[in-house]
Amino acid sequence: MSFRYADSTLSLMRWDPVTTVRNALWIGGGQWSGKSTVAGIIADRHGLTHYHYDYHDARGHQDRRVAARLRRGESPGDPHPDRVWVTPSPQEMASTVLAGFPERFEWVLDDLRALGTPRPVIVDGWGIRPELVVRVAGSPRQMVVLVPTEEFRRHQLAVLPRAGTFNARVSDPVKAQRNRVARDGLIIQDVTENAKLSGVIIIEVDGSRGVEATAEMVADHFSPFLA
Fold this sequence. Notes:
Distance between the termini: 38 Å
Number of helices: 12
Low-confidence stretches: 1-12
Largest sheet: 5 strands, parallel
CATH class: Alpha Beta
InterPro entries: P-loop_NTPase
Strand content: 5-15%
CATH architecture: 3-Layer(aba) Sandwich
Radius of gyration: 19 Å
Strand order of the largest sheet: 2-3-1-4-5
Number of domains: 1
């Protein structure tokens, strides 16, 4: 028995790790700004493959995180939650997170290079940094940064259970949550500054537009790459 495939099908399904990364669309920005929801809407409407950074970073990359610690001569286990959330200042916490983003971004690139999909890929997550994306993307226009206003951040903290509560086992949950909120504010400031320096568009999220309208705005910006 023999099988024949149309040449067009073979060309569509050819694995091309370089092009997959170069042609990807990226959504970065602050916590609780609607990045994943917007990316999901665009993926559904335009038939894209959606890569959810936060999920892979928290689960799929743990083995790489352990290996990286061992290479640096560190303990392979996660540090005690107090050392992450209670003891350091928000400034120290932000510096630690920002210093780790480049290494974590390389893991994302590895994942994207392994994808064999004929569809464009849209990537979202707070670790999707403009200064890193512009090094691999074909154009700065392939990225959008969603930045929540301080008022909208307070709103999200009040209405989103995962934003307004702290679930890690720490000695002082109130201080841990306060530190996390302050840390996230510093990271928002940093991503905003880097987006401006990198020529990446910033869309302010203040709650006046619904998520559908925000998705339409982002899709319009991405329109040259969605045809």
